Structure formats: structure tokens, C-alpha cells
Amino acid sequence: MNAPLKDRQAALQGMGESRLRKEDARFIQGKGNYVDDIKMPGMLFMDIVRAPVAHARIKKINKEAALAIPGVHAVLTADDLKPLKLHWMPTLAGDVQAVLADEKVHFQMQEVAIVIADDRYIAADAVEAVVVEYDELPAVIDPFKALEQDAPILREDLAGKTEGAHGKRYHHNHIFTWDSGDKEKADAAFSAAQVTVEQKMFYQRVHPCPLETCGCVASFDPIRGELTTYITSQAPHVVRTVVSMLSGIPESKVRIISPDIGGGFGNKVGIYPGYVCAIVASIVLGRPVKWIEDRIENLSSTAFARDYHMTGELAATNEGKITGLRVNVIADHGAFDSCADPTKFPAGMFHIVSGSYDIPAAYCRVDGVYTNKAPGGVAYRCSFRVTEAVYLIERMVDVLAQKLNIDKAEIRRKNFIRKEQFPYTSAFGFEYDSGDYHTALDKVLNAVDYKGLRKEQAATRANPNSPTLMGIGLVSFTEVVGAGPSKICDILGVGMFDSCEIRVHPTGSAIARMGTITQGQGHQTTYAQIIATELGLPSEVIQVEEGDTSTAPYGLGTYGSRSTPVAGAAIALASRKIHAKAKKIAAHLLEVSENDLEWEIDRFKLKGDDSKFKTMKDIAWAAYHQPPAGMEPGLEAVHYYDPPNFTYPFGIYLCVVDIDKATGETKVRRFYALDDCGTRINPMIIDGQIHGGLTEGYAVAMGQQLTFDAQGNIQGNTLMDYFLPTAVETPKWETDFTVTPSPHHPLGAKGVAESPHVGSIPTFTSAVVDAFAHLGVTHMNMPHNAYRVWQQLQASGVTS
Amino acid sequence: MIPPSFGYSAPRTLPEALQLMVQHGDAAKILAGGHSLLPMMKLRFAEPGHLIDINRIPELKGIREENGLIKIGAMTTENELIDSVLLQQKVPLLPEAARLIADPQVRNRGTIGGDIAHGDPGNDHPAISIALDATFILTGPRGQRNVAAANFFLGTYMTDMQSDEILTSIHVKPFSTNKTGSAYCKLKRKTGDFATAGAAVVLEISAGVVSLARIALTNVAPTALNAKAAAAALVGKPLTDASIKAAVDAAMAICDPAEDLRGDIEYKTAMAGEMTKRAIRLAASRCK
Q1: Predicted complex ipTM exceeds 0.90
Q2: Does the domain spanning A304-483+646-795 belong to CATH 3.40.50.740?
Q3: Which CATH class for the A41-137+213-261+268-301 domain?
Q4: What is the pLDDT of residues B147-162, one digit of tens each?
């Protein structure tokens, strides 16, 4: 008897099922294996002496007292790394970064020296004992001041260099100019426009702040000449390549392992001085060296995100049809340009800035600037600068709507790229794969009774005794994710493909290895579901392994929502290679032609005859036992997937806030998030990712900011000040979806984990500003914390 | 985030603890819940040579009613205050306010005595104690002495407690259930944060007239503030919008906050006024 089809289907726990996360059993029992859980025999500990000031010359470093502490093995400075040519290192953005401050300090908390000791307690004491004498220089914190003619020269190592990695530098603190679109055409649209609007906005410096800070355990074996490093990396294969290039150790003798990773959000893409120092220390001392930064170090010195000073302009008709877009950005990159973007894109995918709208003429320009702040500029739960771009266009559409007194839903409807226009090529040259924005917008507006909300808002505004202001935020975002096609996307020359290797074992279980690395996304769960559906094997018997460069095929890692769009496609196509071979084996076993077979859930069967079949499990055994004559035994495949295009997930988010007129506190009454990520692999994990992304978006919009005083002292670099919302602060999220598959992706999937972050942030601003819109306010910079909102209440003359 | 090395003792009795304090002199520091002291040590802002951990001294724990007073052992945790039926009935301000302190994990370890003895104006119990007219029992080598909460706080991290004394108990008068109302209003950025501003209010209303008022403010000056003029503005008359405004103005007049990321002086002062207003109204609504 054959089991009913639906039972066989359910037994696979394949795509579309809300399969419970395989990872959680170990995480919720404290059985994860993070970098700081790694212990090796003879392991030493490294700690870092950091600069107390933002800009200074180093006069003298005195190691004597530190070296005199029992248990201290070494104290290393830039001078010690110089003979190895490791005192500076290349960045992913084509710049160089000091591994240890070389004669000069460029930001507060910069790495100045390292100490290596028997344990972390001795190391911490030794850090205190290293005496560094500084000659302070004026710090430059404001990127606009950095570009003034007589601004101090920050990067003396680049003195006289008028050509950077991305073209001409017009000022000693200027890094690059990058532009996109057609300036003349855009200017012409503005000249001819019936109406124009302009808005300046500052997207504040924030930090991804993963729960696990960065760190590594480097272990160099001097006998074998092999280097093994456990590391908090979202891209272990890239780390291996870079480490090999820097150290001269052949890539085959470098093994990089990303074990369990406690969140990344872009913070763990780059190579940090701490990693390089730990590796050097292990090579020099011939012993394993562990380095784990603390929270203050993580927030102060590792990669920040955003810090974009943006000016947006829209040209439009009196009816609200957008005819042109111009954007100008001053990008504060800090002391070194260590953005983690595809090499050719110093401002990432910022040119997605035309958003979900059919805008005929557009131009954007980004100028990167050095300041005395920590380097970074990473994609914090987003695809390369997409968050900044979406923020800008969504704000601008609201500003235009306000100017023309058109409802913000209506103006979006009027300007959306229409369903029948896909594939749609934007004014910046992106080819949007698919979308149906109008349907999604209507679904959200109906779900929340948008008209009713507007009526309620009008009543609240009319009531002078109302203790609150009510605001309604609306955003219709389109992301560009899944970097990317290797013809345009590479990192250090390596194309941004990704990979999958699947081995089906004789008894019908399987192992799959990928070039990506999960940091909480649930790859072990969802990847197995793809294979289960593709191969008809239960996901329960499919092991997924990532993160060990010695076992996994090469891949560019997990960030920019690229795992499903790129590695997910590689999984599907590797599975299909196995599927094709399995079909031949089935035909052989059933003694029929391949053309007589059809696939049904978990088996090939003779067309029209349910009694003649071979399950994938049967076939796996045969592949090792009695393959057809002339066929290679075994059942495995590798696929490297180079995507033909990006994917373009989208969503419609709506938010209702009530602002306390007395305290400035903003309460999110309602947040409705509709996401379209194409084909949905695991709805439960998608919901979880959306909840997480919305919560991080809420954090950014309402509280997160790294601020500096005039001397460049970083402020708020602990979790006392830096806002990580707990369950108490987090609003209740309502989620919804539509499904518009990607036409070019083998599964139709587009990626989802970053959409809620990218989409929610401008939604909160839209809602908060909307509360003040009747008072003539068009924009408020984030974060919308109570103090700042209260200042707006005062400025707008609102009294309680 | 690692402190320099330090000594550690965990006495089982109060005399033993007092003896250790004499023995270690200025190097000694009492460890209660540790939620203020340990972070300061990790940041190396505080570097005591010897910690005397008083968590294992049973006589410092517990809440009881005795001779018309509610007596709270200094090592009683915030969660024990919240769970105490005696306090819920007789001094409801304490369990209500304790709920607004930090988060459940911190409240499992953090103690009322540690919160008070640390002398941090950002802590909540100083203002609450002042509003409750609490008495602190300090025990030292010369015996016990009682200090009124209103006289205890001298400056940031500075109190009337001598370096060889331990705060052992907090005494509070039970509320007259029919006419006393109280409230603690605290504005904070997020769970676990110190107050941007907070106000503790205890009111008694008899026959429609405010017969007693005590108001104290959190984190808007170098110490918790006893807002006497604000309280006086309410007493002897019915509670009206005008009297509340007078009290709020008086409370704001004594604020002397430091600017930080929570806000500037203007905002914090305004919020102290707003919290005072809300706490007065809430407390009044609880006077039966």
C-alpha cells in the first residue's frame, strides 16, 4: 500500500512547511559552541591597549611595566608589526587601515598595542600597565568641517594622493566621489517641474550590536605550518583568502572556522585589527591565542553603520506624478574606509534610491569623507546602503505628498511601478525582477481600516484636551538583495557567487555544505527543507554544515540577504543535478526509459502506474550498490551559483503612533507589516526574521545612536545608553504577505531577513513626523527618543 | 571589563562583618546585590581592595511588622519587596516602585539597602525613602544609630554612613489605610535604565483637605531631593489644579540635573515637574 500523497508530502517537512528550527534545541539549552567556548591546550589571551583620545601623535609607548607582570608573554606595537609588513592592512573598500596605530591615532578606542598573557585577568592588568604618551591634535568629528579648506589633515599616510580606490580625491580628507544616473536629464526634469521639494536629513551613526561581540582563537602550528582560526565571521572563506594574502601562508594551510555565531547584522563581515593581531601573536609565540572584545570595544571600534548626511529633491507635476529625483550625500566613513561593499560600489547599492516608483530621471552622488571616528559603514541588517536609500526616497515621497496636500497612500499609488511594467529598468539601471505593489498596498490599507485611522486622527487633532498626538506612517519599500551577479559584484576580485555541495549517503540520508554561514537565520532548518522538496528525502535526515573552510565549498558568506537568493539557488541546482542522475538510476532499476518516468514527491514512478516506482531512498542505495553500467557510482553534486540578477523583495508597512504631549514618549499602537519575499520556504522562520528585523528597525528609529563630543569622545557606548529593546519596549507586530516569485531564481525566492529592518525604519519616522504634519513639520531626524520628540513638541508650541 | 584583583570575605554574622570592616579599614567595601558596585569595578572606576559580601547574613533579610513599624532588612531584594503581602497592604509604594527598578534579573539580586547605601541619585530608593519618611538603622563598632532618610543623602555617592558602618535595616511607618495614597512615577528610556526623572509622592487627604504631603525626586540633582516646598504647597487645602501647579513649580525650582544622553537640564527639569504632577494625581486618586 502506498501512503496517501499528502502524508508522504508532510513526512518530508519540505518547502512551505513551518518546520521547527533545528538549531534551537542546542541554543536554548546553552549547548551552542561559540568562539569564546573554544578552549585549546596552551591557549593564551590577548587584550588591546586602546587610544583614550580621538586624534593624536604617539610620542612614546612604554611596555616595561606590563612586561614585568608575571604571566605576560608579549606586548606588541605597530613597530613590532612593521618588519612583517602587517602594521597596516588593506580594507575591503580599497583603502588601508592601521592594524595598530602607526605613529598616529585616528579615533578614540583605536588599537594601539596588544598584550598577550596567560589569562584574560593578567592581560587586563597588563593593558593598564602599558604607558602611552600622546601629543593631542585637533579632532575632526563633523564631515562638513573635515572638507573645509584648512581642516586638519587626518590621513597623513595618503598625503599628496589625489587618486583613491574609486577615483579622484578633491580634498585631503575626501575619500571618493561616486555617482549614478543621468545628471543632465535629472536637472532638465527639475527645470521643467511644476513643483519641487527638497529635504535634508541625517541618518545617524548606529551600530549593529550583535549579542555576541567579535573575537577569535588563532592557532598556528609551527611544525605543520598550518593556521587554524575560529572566528566570529559572516564570511569565513573571504577571511581565509585575506589571511593567506596577508600572511603568505598558502590558502590550503589556512583553516577558518565560524562556529555558532551569536548574530552578525553586518558587524562580522570585515577583518578587524584584533583578528590580525591574534593571528600574528599565535605565529610569533607558537601557541593558540584567544581574543574576545567586550561590549564597549565592540560598540566603539568595530564597524558602525549609516552616518549619511543626505539631501533629497523631487520634481513632480501638480498632480503628484514624480518626474525627477536628485540625491546628494556626504558619507562619514570615519578614519579608514573599511566599508564592506562589493568592490565596485563604494556606496553599495545606494542607487536603489528611486525605490518602488517609476521615476523617469534620477541622479545621485555620494562623497565619502574621513573623520576621527571608528571606521565601518557596513550593511546593518540590510543590503549595502539600501537602508539609507529606502529611508531617503520614502521620506521624500512623504514630503512631496505633504507639499501637494495629497494623501501619502494616494501619492504612492500614483507613482508605483505597475505590475505590467516588470521586469522594470530603473533610471539608475537596476532591472527589478517582479513586483505587485498596488495589490499589496490595498491589502494593508484594508486590513488596518486606513480611512478610519485618518478620521480618528482628524478628531484627535481637533481635540485640544487630547493628551497625545496621533501619527500614521506608511512606507512602500523595494529592496535589492542577493549580491550578486559576478559580472558587477565582487569582493577583492572574487565574484559574489555562492555554492552548495550535497552528498546523498547509501541509506538515503544526506549532508549539504554551503559557502554561507548562519548567524541566527536558521539555515540548518531551511536549507534542509529545500533539499527535502527537491530530492524527496525527509529534511530530518539532511545535515547542513557551514562555516568550516576546510570542508565547505567556497562562498562569499551571509549578509545582504544573499543566503536564500544565492546559496538557496545553489542548493536547488545541486539538488537538481542529483535528481537528474537519480532519474537515470531509477530508469535502469525499473528497466524503462527515462521518458516513461515521472517525479512524485519522493519517488520516480512509471507514468500512470503507481505500483512501479523507486523512491529516492531506493535510488541512493542503488547508486552505491548497482549503478547502471558506465555510470560513476555515488550520488552527490556541487553547484556554484552565479545569479543572473539581484532579487527585489518589497513590502508595505503601516504604523500608528501616539505621542505623549508632556514627555515626548512615542507609543507604537499598531504596526502592520506586509512582506513579499517571493516563494516562502519556512513561514514560521520568515515570521521570526520579520519580528527580529522590525525590532531592530524600531531600535534604530527610536533610540540607537553613537554620538561624539567635540573632542571626539564616543558617548553612549554601553548598553546603558545604546538602545537594545527588550520585550517590554518592543511593540506588537502584525505580519502579512503576498507572494510574487522572482522569475529568475530557481525557487522563486527573494530573501527576507533584512526587509523588515530596511522597511520599518522610515515607517517609524513617517509616523512620528505625521503626528506633527498639521503643524508644518516635514521631517525629524532619528532617533525619535522622548527627549528629541519633546524638543519638537516645544518647537511646535504643543503643550499638554 | 575585568577588575583588578581584590580580596573577598563572606561573613555569616553581622559582628563578623563589622570585625572584617575594622580589619580591612579603607580598603573594605560592602558587597550587597552588586549591581552598582560590580559594574564600577569592571570599568575600574572603583578599585576596592577587599569585598565583604553580606549576602549570607540571615539577620539582614526579611520584612516584618514590629511595634507599629514595618522593618525591612537591608539585604531584602527588590523582588522580595514586590512579593511582600505585608508591604502591598501597609506600604504599597514600595512594591509598586520596586517594579520600576531595572529588570527581573537585577531585581533578583539588587537589594533595598544597597540601593540606598550607594548614594546614587539615579537610584530609586533614596527618593522613595524620603517620601516614606523612612528611618535607616546603621550598625557600626559603636553600636546602632538611626538616621532619617531626609538627612542621609549628602552628595553623589556620599551619605551620612561612616566607613565602618553597615546599613542594616530600613524602618517605615505603615500607611493609614483609609486616607493615605502614594505613587511613584518614573520616566525612563527603557527597561534597566536609570530615571530621566522620577517623583515619589505620599499624600493624606482628610475630609477633602490635604493633611499630609511628602514629595521626593529621583535623579534631578546630586542627591535625591526632598521637595518640601512642593509638599507644603499642597497641605491644608483641597487638591486643585492650582495647588498642583504650585507644587510642580516648587518641585522644578529645586531641580539641579546634569545634562547627559537622557536630556538637557531643561528637559529633565520639565520631566521632574511632569512626574510630580502625575504622581500627585495618582496618589490622590488612591486616597479613599
Answers
A1: yes
A2: no
A3: alpha beta
A4: 999 999 999 999 999 9
